[in-house]
């Protein structure tokens, strides 16, 4: 089994097959907008912009399971 065997749900509720990203370099990030680490989002954006031509993708998954750091609904996030 590999990462490409998994599927996720987009913030819009649509299924995302990780196999669609086969052949790309993936950085999978657990995000939370109220977390102190959210200030790193700008650096993640810069990293993506500098490497996207080489097939680099960032998949960010908002999560509210750790101290209520992402309390918004999908539309608010």
From TrEMBL:
The keyword Ion transport does not apply. Signal peptide: none annotated. Keywords: Oxidoreductase, Peroxidase. The keyword Glycosyltransferase does not apply. It comes from the Bacteria. InterPro entries: Glutathione_peroxidase, GPX_CS, Thioredoxin-like_sf. Belongs to the glutathione peroxidase family. This is Glutathione peroxidase. It comes from Paenibacillus terrae.
């Amino acid at each position: 089994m590999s990462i490409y065997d998994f599927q996720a749900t987009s913030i819009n509720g649509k299924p995302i097959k990780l196999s669609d990203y086969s052949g790309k370099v993936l950085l999978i990030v657990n995000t939370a907008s109220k977390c102190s680490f959210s200030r790193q989002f700008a650096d993640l954006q810069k990293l993506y912009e500098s490497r996207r031509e080489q097939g680099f993708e960032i998949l960010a998954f908002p999560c509210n399971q750790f101290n209520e750091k992402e309390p918004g609904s999908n539309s608010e996030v």
